[in-house]
Amino acid sequence: MGYVLKQVHASLRTAMDETLRPLDLTVPQYACLELLGQDPGLSNSELARRAFVTRQSMNLVLRRLQERGLLTRPDQAPYGRALPSELTQDGLDILRQASIAVRAVEKQLFAPLAPEQQRRLREDLAACLPSTESN
Length: 135
Description:
mainly alpha, Arc Repressor Mutant, subunit A, 6 helices
């Protein structure tokens, strides 16, 4: 089962890479935008955890997105060491475009399954995730 999950993941990742390329986004950049769209103000460490990348990798993602004007971060932490990130209007616009493109990829990937099968698969996979306080 793990191998089939890995194959599906690889197929999804490849398709996402291709669909995000015209928007000049990588999958980790898209994940970062998506996470900030859902929960503005996340820190580098929290974004890294939720996007399944290292803090160093997320720092590069954030820097690139900030250089493009898609998000803002303060020069100094308002408290502690964390620099909260927020999407700009351009960031929200590109997130909207990227989300539409990614949903189309997901729809195509899971098209062989009926809507009820898709819902059940989502629920069954979610049930396999370890429950944590941070989710």
